[in-house]
Amino acid sequence: MTLNEVRQKYLKFYEGQGHTVIPSSSLVPQNDPTTLFTGSGMQPLVPYLLGKNHPAGARLVDSQKCFRSMDIEEVGDNRHTTFFEMLGNWSLGDYFKQEQLPWFFKFLTDEVGLDPQKLYVTVFIGDEKNNVPKDVESAEIWKKLFSEKGVEAEVVEIGSEENGYNVGMTAASGKEGRIFYYDAKKNWWSRAGTPDKMPAGEPGGPDSEVFYDFGQFKEDGQAAHDTKWGAECHPNCDCGRFLEIGNSVFMQYIKKEDGTFGLLPKQNVDFGGGLERIAAASENKNDIFLVAHDSIISQLEQSTGTRYEDNVRAFRVIADHAKAAVFLIADGVNPDGKDQGYFVRRLLRRSVLFLHKLNANISITSVIPGIIDLYKEQYPELVAKQADIERQVAIEEEKFTATVARGTKELMRFVGQESLSAENAFQLVTTFGFPLELIIEEAGEHGIKQIDIEGLKELLKKHQDLSRSGSEQKFKGGLADTEEKTVRLHTAHHILLKALQIVLGPEVHQRGSNITQERLRIDFNYGQKMTDEQKKEVERIVNEKIQEGIPVIRSEMSLEEADKLGAEHEFGAKYPERVSVYSVGPLDSAFSIEFCGGPHVTNTGELLKSGSRFKIQKEEAVSAGVRRIKAVLE
């Protein structure tokens, strides 16, 4: 099955089980100060899993775009990608294990057509120290489900992942196992980690993972289990035989003040399944690139005159990185040297570098139409943004070409030396933007035999740790804390956006935001620096609306009604049939109307409690065509 077929079958299947289809959130989290990117399907739904009511109800389903920057260096094997889609379904205090596990099993076997003989599952073994019981209920459900398909489901007690390499696949009966018990490191979920690490008040619970068995051989033709990983194979083994395709988290416990665990009053289900992985299983191909990136790979083969099987790593890196960059740019992140933009730049430059290794005289922009064509049905906004995406990629590619020229010139200073020190290599990477892979390649070609790679990695790690600390400080606080000052600035943010549209033009729309207790920040599309007169007029309008004491009203309505009212909405997002909107003033005469989940003040006059005047502190460029305002309530 194609990605589109699996995605649509999944959404339709769970819609048939009473779930409301909700749109994918942006890859750039809105009002979430904890991370630069949306890296999991559940991330946008954390407030609702913790008790907030979702406007679409208690049963939800979606396919969420995800980007994991930490996997950039991992791309190259048969399963790691930076960009992927996570299929998700949630029960917010509604159904639980007895519904979730049979539904997912039915979807895999009856809808996708997977052979139940190729499916293996894991469950939680329990935690005696914390008096958290073994998840026997999930194991019994699985046993029954497999039995109904004529599959004998023997149970194997694994415990730790490390012990799995000793125990292997065989149950006590001597038969191959089907259901495997693992400890909390593998089959327990909470934001804090294992039960020991959870603070009082933190919810958590066991999970149950499903693995697909690709058979007895890996892609390189060797036996499925490579003993370098351990003596025996097991579902969580990294040898390549098994691939996790879905995980059901059962949020049922809360840690109490005395350190013990009690049951949550409302128990939730949080499921995540890899779209690309399920599609790969549907074709029994353990190389997800031949399923999720096949059209891109075919295009690269034609345009470069090389074969995928001869250049596997290069093709995988180019296909994944180019796809991730397309989606990030579409969500408003342009390549630059800081925050999210840094990663777009890194993705594109690595793509160009690997094209260089193929000796291909083509531009990375040549693969963009193929990527957009693959996803245009689910994400039509890509088509609307195609020209801008291609422009941004072309500009970055041109900059990188100049960077390579400067870096090569700098590297020539060390020609004639036997080795390159960690400090000199670090300067090439950080000052000249010269990629490590290219340093190694060029140094070898010019007779530099040794590079202090380990020393360089240590310097780069220190550099990354400092950058990460700065990023965490920069994004400290935010709307997620829902403190009064933050909520007031959130309402001021809505008024500000409308004021910008009045002063600069109706084509101005939000492209990102971050709101703390100290200030608000809004990114918006506009092609030039604002004049002092424009900034003063925007301030005047915002302060006027604060002084007027206008009611701020939350309304629920159909998507069609909200569109007719001209409600502002998140760029590129899809919305359910019923939506939540906030209006500054009654709907029939509102100053502004936005799709929003809140929270807000009930009257603009409340903004005076934290200050008497709205003030723009700074207006600056973020990237081409995008400006940023930072403002406060003085």
Provide keyphrases for this structure.
globular, four-stranded antiparallel sheet, BirA Bifunctional Protein, domain 2, Threonyl-tRNA Synthetase, Chain A, domain 2, alpha+beta, ten-stranded mixed sheet, about 625 residues
Detailed description of the structure:
- With 634 residues, the protein is an alpha+beta fold.
- The chain folds into 3 domains: 3-289, BirA Bifunctional Protein, domain 2; 327-473, no CATH class; 479-633, Threonyl-tRNA Synthetase, Chain A, domain 2 (2-Layer Sandwich).
- It has helices at 3-15, 46-49, 97-111, 136-148, 161-167, 184-187, 275-282, 289-292, 294-304, 312-330, 339-357, 368-375, 381-411, 422-430, 436-445, 453-474, 484-504, 532-547, 559-564, and strands at residues 20-21, 59-67, 83-92, 119-124, 154-159, 177-182, 188-190, 203-213, 242-255, 261-274, 419-420, 450-451, 510-515, 520-525, 552-558, 578-584, 592-595, 614-623, 626-633.
- The strands form 4 sheets. Strands 1, 2, 3, 4, 5, 6, 7, 8, 9 and 10 form a 10-stranded mixed sheet that branches.
- Helix 12 (368-375) runs antiparallel to helix 13.
- The radius of gyration is 26 Å and the shape is globular.
- The model is unreliable at 470-478 (pLDDT under 50).
- Its EC number is 6.1.1.7.
- Belongs to the class-II aminoacyl-tRNA synthetase family.
- GO terms for molecular function: alanine-tRNA ligase activity; aminoacyl-tRNA deacylase activity; ATP binding; tRNA binding.
- Residues 1-634 form the Alanyl-transfer RNA synthetases family profile domain.
- Pfam families: tRNA-synt_2c, tRNA_SAD.
